[in-house]
Amino acid sequence: MSAPTMSAPLLGLARRTIASAPLFTPSHLSKTEYLHKARRGGDAAGVTVAALIISGWGGAVGTALFAWDVHAAAPWRTACLAAAVQWLYAGLFITAHDAMHGLVAPGLPRLNNALGWLCVRCYAMFDYELLVHAHWAHHRHSGHVGKDPDFHDGEHTSALMWYLHFMREYMTVSQLALMGVAFNALHFALGVPFANMMLLWVMPSLLSSLQLFYYGTFLPHREPEGGWADDHRATTHPQSLLWAFFSCFFFGLHSEHHNYPFVPWFRLPMVSSASALPSLPSLTTKKASYLLFVLTCAAFTTVQLRTFTFWAGWGAAQWGLVALHAAPTAIFMEYVYRSMHRDLWHHSFWFLHSSHHGPKSEASAFELNDLNGVLQALPVLICMAYTARLPPAVSSASLLGVLAGVSIYGCGTTILHDGIFHQRFAVGPLRDVATLQKIAAAHQAHHAADGQGVYGPPHGFFLAREELEAAKVGKPTPGPPIWLQVAMLGCCCTVLGILG
Length: 500
Fold this sequence. Notes:
The protein is mainly α and about 500 residues long. It folds into two domains: about 10-270, no CATH class; about 285-495, no CATH class. The chain contains 21 helices and no strands. It has helices spanning about 10-20, 30-40, 45-65, 75-100, 110-125, 130-140, 160-170, 175-190, 195-220, 240-250, 255-260, 270, 285-310, 315-350, 350-355, 370-385, 395-420, 435-440, 445, 465-470, 480-495. Helix 1 (about 10-20) crosses helix 5 (about 110-125), helix 4 packs across helix 9 and helix 14 packs across helix 21 (about 480-495).
């Protein structure tokens, strides 16, 4: 069977789109200056974030359409899946929006526009070329009736009528036809149930368009009582960055976006100039933050206990195998943590981690950086839940040991870093242990540059003093010793069943 090919019109459109360049740059910047500013962040961060969103959307939609029984699943679980699909749909469009600005891969325009084209096609079969032209018209004539395709018609300014006008500007007959073909192909050719199609594909897509319109067009471009402050005719509404992220991927920071169109969505908080914009959840969300924290801890503890209870019938030999894998994994995690902290949190994920080094709010005990911990805990939770379903074997015991080692390191780091050093919660008598105090105190060197923008070693925690000593004599940071590398290789082999 020959490989599937695109139709000639679609292929031609894709080629024209991928070959196109940004159509418009701000009046105060030449095209060269714009591209120079856009390329300062490199291509890796934008492509990585885009890949995460696209793959997350693909996984969520694939699960919703092909692996979810709407009638058998509890309604609240179906609602949660639908909400996740809706949020990822919004992320898909935000990624396409960044591609229209040349920000997904600034140094690789073909890849940048290919990803943008893919995102709008997956979102709702939109014509990427049409969206690029319309979006730059929006930036040229922001807030001008008849010239800005995103603005209302000058007569009907209510949210509903504005939304309907907004959608008419972008809907085309060819797009609706392609959507119809996709719907019928999924339902009749691939056998996707109608209920799944409507509840977990059509509705999340439509609701995400409302979400994008409300937070990205209606609120920021609605004329304020005192009139517009500048020619961009865009405002930023004070809100916590946590809510700005979950509501619309920081698209609510709209004044910043119009002033700095060369900054990708995940770096907008770094250029935020709104003095009323708190970097942490506001007082009104403090209780909700605590509730989220408690629920996360409860979920983590429940999954851990369920997993270990499942294996309660094991004897000393089996638990010894778990411990044999947990010990080297917990030690090895120090080197993993060090690399992630240095190469990810202080680069690609700085938009989250910067809240940890910035000014703290007394109104909340939480930071945007806490999402890093949630993102790291999720894979462990998923793997733990998966392990509880595996039959007893050497490989499953090995996997349980590795996950236990990761959990032990994570809990230990949380106690030392957040409890003892930053004093974010009480740790009781552990605070008085001299060895733990010395380990935590070494972390002060990393925070010595807070507010100056240069954060050197130590990037690890338990072996922070080792990093500092190497930095003093100008030596590179030591890597894991040979014995630990061999031990981890053995752990990987048994987890994969090679030695089991």
